[in-house]
Fold this protein.
Amino acid sequence: MNDRLAAAGEGVGGPRLWLAAAAIGAVFGVFALRLFQLQIVEGALLSEQSERNSIRTLRLEAPRGDILDREGRVLATTRPAFSLEVLPSELRRPERTFRALGQLLDEDPERLEARLGHPRGRARFQPVRLASDLPFEELARVETHRYALPGVLTDVSPRREYLDGDLFAHVLGTIGEIRAEQLEKPEYEGYSSGDVIGQSGLEAVLETRLRGEDGGRNVVVDVAGREVDLLDEVEPVAGSPVRLTLDLDLQRAAVEGFAPERPEDPEKLGALVALDPRTGDVLALVSRPSFDPNAFAGGVDTATWRGLMHDERKPLQDRAIAGQYPPGSTYKAIVAAAALEEGVTSKVSRVFCPGSFWFGGRRYGCWRKEGHGSVDVHAALVRSCDVYFYEMGTRLGIDRLAFYAKAFGLGHPTGIALPEEKGGLVPSSEWKKRRFGVPWYPGETVSAAIGQGYNLLTPLQLAVAYAAIANGGHLVKPRLVMPDLPPGVTEEPASFVSEVPVKPENLAIVRSGLMGVVEEPGGTGARGRVPGVQVAGKTGTAQVAGLQHFEGLDESKIPIKFRDHAWFVAFAPVENAEIVVAVLAEHGGHGGSAAAPIAQKVMARYFEKKAEREGLLQAGTQAPVPAAAADEGTVPARPEARTAHLESEAAHARP
Amino acid sequence: MLGLDRRAWQHFDGVLFGLVLLLIAMGVANLFSATHAGTDGVAPEFQRQMVSIGLAAVGLSVALLVDYRRLERLAFPFYFLACLLTLSTLVLAPVYKGNQSWLVFGPLRLQPSELAKLGLVLALSRYFQRHPPEQLHRLRDLWGPGLVIALPVGIIVAQRDTGVALLTLLVGATYLLFVHIPWRAWAVVLAAGSAGFAGLVRFALEPYQRSRILDFLEPGRDPLASGYQAIQSRIAIGSGGLLGKGFLEGTQTQLRFLPTQHTDFIFSVLAEEWGFIGSLLVLSLYLVLLLWGLLVASRSKDGFGAMLAIGVVAMLFWPAAINIAMVLGLAPVIGVALPLFSYGGSAMIANLIGVGLLLNVSMRRYLF
């Protein structure tokens, strides 16, 4: 050690070390004083109390906000659910208790006891749930005998209720306990395990709006676990209600459309989307088969969950936004718009259809083997002539076709506020090179032009594309939640994202062709007609792979799961359309017969409601009408008098 | 050379060793009670802690037996190794309990940031032995130690383990108390320090940590989340009274109202079961231990030994002060464990190695 280093040691021995010692002493002095304050001054009272009692903090769960339809009718609400619990550490004479409970609940005492299990250790201080969502009479019976049953507790907590069962299951989504991996995410900051959150659909998307703020209370409980004193309480704050753009009546009409014609038939599968092309409001969003989301509200049991997961009809999939299907002939309207806009055809130029089309040494048949003769664009749409569109496809080429398809909103998600949405597929030469590493063959364009081949889209995308045809070229971003209007504004702002690069006069030609599909004799969509309104539409058939085996067979002889998917997409009135409906009937066969009647039901209901509204207005009655109510800036009336089932106070009232 | 000559043993610091043994014994008894709560036998946390104490005793022995002056040359290698291990968690470790500071080897889970704290003490002691602090007069002389401190702190901040990062920073900053720079330079250091702290609060703190600070400023803001622990802790401490409820008799403890009673809130278990008398005894033991450490520093004959002793005192003082302040409701709940008392193996090992170094410096003060 040299002197310099030795000197260093002496340097720290100086006044600064004394300073450090004094600082440490001061800190511990403060601690001693604080302990004195807590334990001797304030503690006298608390320690006396805690000899007999303990203080517990209980959580008061906040009810979720209601979900309303566009007219303010409640679709999802929260009601109090009573459950029966047993605190093992307080249970005296278990055999007698369970026998009594068995009588009160009309259940086998042994099964109740089995539910309790054999909690050991610290689990004995945790209440075990024996029965949840008790009917009120059973709750009352237990409550009257509770003083004879130490350790038996009843608890009330808010429970989600979907008033229309499976009607809105996919779009509203489900709730469930927060999962461990979700707790780690920043967006769930402030949540703790056991919290119930929106797990899918709008319940998940609107979580922050629907969720209230939990409250809590500190209570003094005696040795038997009974609350003897309330120290303080923070009231829970209920979540905000959210008004959707959906219309309960149209949703109902749509689901009725999927019901089997004869009761012994299986339910029809498929999806329906109804949009308001003027605003982008989603009026109905249906996917069948569905499931009952109420089964998820109190924690779904394993058997139900497995059943849903393994059901080969895939009831959990939201076909309207996540089902991807070949567009079939519904694609022809877009091909027509593209061909007109690119100048490869005109309103008057004609193509001769002999019943087949030769390209690259291969024959592509028209669905009508005898051919359609000479057709212009109007006739080609009305009669769905394949050859006309084969020709248009080859004139345009795949990449120009892809450009217009994407401009109509296909090939990418529409941006609806649902996380499960899929984007479909619009093939292009660049895509094929990237995906398969081989060039695009011109022959593939031929089948792409009639919506077969690689093309995939969702029913929602089809509705959006036709909304653009109907509204003069505005591409909408479908909207599910009513926007909050600033005071004084009554007109809903439109949810447009872009303009389709097709001139209005060309869209008008397409609209006129589509009107012919429904309204002209010989059109394929005659079953979409609605009395008193001019309807435009298009049928389509999406081929299911492996169909060659059944070619030439009568449709009814083909097993259902190999039958084609049927499309029908329509809007009405033809000019200044107010509603667009896209229907996919899975394995339905022909669009005209399977899908069009379902769309027709929804459109008919829409115009029926409109007529009722206008009739009431003309009659000069004071009946509450959504439009009138909106003028006054109030929530529209609830025609069916469906109000929230409980006020927030009731939701957390304790027995 | 282990330096185990007779003279060293003659000067073995029995007082220091006795203090530490007593604190550990009380800590073990207290942890038994905290983890016992409701179990029929011995809780797994308690068993793991006993294994950690065994490993820590080995660490203490090694730190004691090797003459500390031989450790001088190993100071920086140890420092860099500890920093590297800490850094490796960012690559290797999964996010566990909200941060990324654990290395997992089968049943063993190591938190290398605790070792980085120890490495920082060794490295700074070595640095200030080369550059005696009383000879540092200018602000620019602080670049070197500043960098030595910044490296491990930066890595630990990146792990999002804000509590340990803060402690490491405080341990490093403690050394700066002994440099002789003019008051204007101090102003600059303080300004830089406050800016760094503000940056930490603004950017490195997780939302829940920020909300805990808000909870502290406004108690009862959220009775169920972080404020819950503070309120329950206060009830537990208050109900302890003068004499306490007795071993294993604390009702708040045994009913497990405090979720982290075996880690961050261990002191409230002590206060409930042993009362004002027991808490005051433990506070006194800590105080004597820390002052004794400063005495060891002042009696050391060389700069490295003195600096080492100061570092170990800082390593024990800061977490103890912050933890107790937090449990007593004098500071926000930021998740700092109580040294020698709380459940946690890595901290126990690092702290007992520190105690070993302190004993080492103390017993070799005459060997010149």
About this structure: The longest strand of chain A covers residues 74-86. The radius of gyration of chain A is 33 Å.
